[in-house]
Design goal:
The protein is mainly alpha-helical. It contains eight helices and four strands. 63% of the residues lie in helices and 7% in strands.
């Protein structure tokens, strides 16, 4: 199935590039040369979190945050560097490229949007964490846009939100 490069989505990222990195954008969830797109997204999300909180990201910090070995992180970081999503210098750390940062921000936005939506519905924090970690890698742009619109409407219509919460048994 061809991917339209000019198509715009909530992600504001060229779909052609995304499709080459994350084949599920074109309609199928598969592995790429980088490994699973879920893993790539987790790395980029964690790297951006570290840069935003500490000002830098190191392999040791990424490994601790993702609870995986430093060797595994080094391998993935080298592949992300080869794909142009970050710049990595051994023993010096790493920095996201413009493309890597843009993609990481979109991943983070998606994560926050799903979290906000489920919190709005009054779900338990542990349930939200578990569900968002599962959903964020498998949700399509049209579904994400629908959740964003629904979240916006529920925030503007407290009476409707109360009805929905009652119907699902949330507080």
């Amino acid at each position: 199935m061809p991917v339209r490069a000019a198509s715009r989505s909530i992600f504001h990222f060229p779909l052609l590039l995304l499709a080459s990195i994350f084949p599920f954008v074109a309609g199928k969830k598969t592995s790429s040369a980088l490994g699973s797109s879920s893993a790539v997204e987790d790395y980029l999300e964690r790297i951006l979190e570290l840069i935003n909180s500490k000002g830098y990201a190191r392999v040791v910090d990424i490994a601790a945050g993702l609870k995986i070995s430093q060797a595994s992180v080094t391998n993935m970081v080298q592949r992300l560097d080869a794909e142009g999503l970050l710049k990595y210098e051994k023993y010096r750390g790493l920095a996201l490229t413009t493309a890597g940062e843009k993609l990481a921000r979109n991943i983070t936005h998606r994560h926050h949007l799903l979290t906000d939506f489920l919190k709005l519905l009054g779900l338990d924090d542990q349930v939200i964490y578990h569900d968002v970690e599962g959903m964020e890698h498998h949700i399509s742009p049209p579904t994400l846009r629908a959740i964003e619109a629904l979240t916006s409407q529920l925030q503007r219509q407290p009476a409707l939100l109360i009805k929905v919460r009652k119907q699902i048994g949330a507080s």
